[in-house]
Amino acid sequence: METYKFLLDLCLILLSTKVLGLLTRKFSMPQVVGALLAGVILGPGILGIITPTDFISDTAEVGVIVLMFCAGMETDVQELKKSGKSALIIALIGVLVPLVGGYAVAAFFNRPGMLESDASSSLFLQNVFIGVILTATSVSITVETLKELGKLKTRSGNAILGAAVIDDILGIIALTLITSMADESVKISIVLLKIVGFFIFVAIAGFIFYKFFSKWSAGEGVGLQRHVIVSFVFCLFMSYAAEQFFGVADITGAYFAGLIISMTQREPYIASRFDVLSYTYLSPIFFASIGLKVSLPEMNSTIVAFAVVLTIVAILTKVVGCGLGAKLCHYKNYQALRIGVGMISRGEVALIVASKGESLGLMSTAVMGPVVIVVILTTIIAPILLKPVFKRGPETTLDPNVDIAKNYEAISKFREGK
């Protein structure tokens, strides 16, 4: 018999994320925190009313793709070009510092008499892998928070986005290096070749689509829905190609698709349409789905201590590492702090990396609990800290596009809850 429980799940998710979002806003916190908490409360971690399903998982995946597509459209390309070199340095140091910090914490706790490891690989590889997990960054939480605060088009916001994309690439390389030591079938040379191929593909596909779309849409009326559909097709294709052919995260492909659309004349109208879709349906499901995955195993005092120390190190290493990279690139102190805080969240990215390592014998099952705690706390703390740090320093938001669609202002007000 066909079940329609997914409809009830959707009702509960959309209602709870909005109610808790408004509640957290009352306490001067971004609404995305409420959406994350809604998933934790409704999921197996507390009430167990909703369990993760394939439908929720697939919808959430589309949600994060659309979220990053919108982020790409809202990125100032000229500002991104200026921060290209800076983003590389920020991402590089922002990967190295957590890698070392995670290894140091694991080396202290992951030894006989403290943690009993059932992983098949050597202790050295296990400890390095904990560092690899901490290098991950889930920028989707930061993007939604910055959009809510109206700070995505700042110099700091662009630096965070650029660094996050590079961080994703560096994370893939680090993961491949460590897994190749545990699995001889993984070849780092092939992975590096695929990454280079991905950027070549983005350049070629982006150029072709930009020329086609600009010429095709120039002779038509403003505000046609066919422009939105074709843009979405391009977004989904880039996401699929990135993951399927090049081993790069699908959200990276979606971000570049949005970046290409941002250079066209139809971007304001297209962005306004996707903004409504993301806000009313896809984003709440995505953020709630992260909370639904939370399920803490039983832990003894040693594992709890490991979880606490690992969480502190996870937060500090991103703030210090990315902040130091920003300072080396001559960002001001308040901008460096913004960038460091913006890279704190590990989100679903760390969980994916952890599950991959566990299957390859690079991580003990006892360590999964602390990793889940790190994911939960960094995901919730990041948006909470972003609001006060973006109040520091002068206003640096770039001038909005004067060509923006007539209904976009109304949509922005709607998203702010006005």
Class from helix and strand fractions: mainly alpha
CATH topology: Na+/H+ antiporter like fold
Q: How widely separated are the two ends?
A: 43 Å
| Tally of domains | 1
Helix segment tally: 17
Q: Mean pLDDT, nearest integer?
A: 84
Q: Helicity, in percent?
A: over 70%
CATH architecture, by name, is Up-down Bundle
> What value does the Rg take, in angstroms?
21 Å
Q: How many extended strands? A: 0
Largest sheet: none
Order of helices and strands: HHHHHHHHHHHHHHHHH
Strand content: under 5%
Reading off the top of the CATH hierarchy, the class is best stated as Mainly Alpha
Described by the principal axes of the CA atoms, the overall outline is globular
Organism: Blautia faecicola
Subcellular location: Membrane
Pfam families: Na_H_Exchanger
Keywords: Antiport, Ion transport, Membrane, Sodium, Sodium transport, Transmembrane, Transmembrane helix, Transport
3D structure, described in words:
The protein has a single domain, classed as Up-down Bundle (Na+/H+ antiporter like fold), CATH 1.20.1530. Helix content is 75%, strand content 0%. It is built from 17 helices and no strands. Helix 5 (84-109) crosses helix 8, helix 5 (84-109) runs antiparallel to helix 13 and helix 13 (301-328) crosses helix 14. The radius of gyration is 21 Å and the shape is globular.
What are the salient characteristics of this protein?
single chain; 418 residues; mainly alpha; Na+/H+ antiporter like fold; 0% strand; globular
Annotate the secondary structure layout.
Layout: H1 5-26, H2 31-42, H3 54-73, H4 77-82, H5 84-109, H6 123-135, H7 139-149, H8 155-182, H9 188-218, H10 225-246, H11 250-261, H12 267-292, H13 301-328, H14 333-342, H15 347-359, H16 365-389, H17 408-415
Transmembrane segments: 32-50, 87-108, 128-146, 158-182, 188-210, 222-240, 246-264, 276-296, 302-324, 366-386
Subcellular location: Membrane
Organism: Blautia faecicola
